[in-house]
Write a structure and sequence with these properties.
four-stranded antiparallel beta sheet; 34% helix; 89 residues; globular; alpha+beta; Histidine-containing Protein, Chain: A
Length: 89
């Protein structure tokens, strides 16, 4: 199990496009990928659950990754968040 805190860095937050990108990328992995919000977990493979976060710039998300390919999930999540979801302003 890997636990990691990632900060939303793009200025517009987790709107539809970044949420869709996360859900699509996470769905390509076998591992369970959850976000811990005060001990309630949302599925990071669900665009609707990601959108329900209303995460703005600066929001820190606590990811919990569990499964055989968890290291690959960890790397991909870091890449997505570091690239600010490839949004250029």
């Amino acid at each position: 199990m890997i636990k990691v805190v990632l900060e939303v860095k793009n200025s517009s937050g987790l709107h539809a496009r970044p949420s869709s990108l996360i859900a699509r990328k996470m769905s390509s992995f076998l591992s369970e990928v959850k976000i811990d919000i005060n001990n309630e977990f949302i599925n990071a493979k669900s665009i609707l659950e990601l959108l329900s976060l209303c995460a703005s710039c600066g929001t820190k998300l606590n990811f919990v990754i569990n499964g055989d390919d968890e290291n690959d999930v960890f790397k991909e999540l870091n890449r997505l968040f570091d690239s600010e979801f490839n949004e250029a302003y």
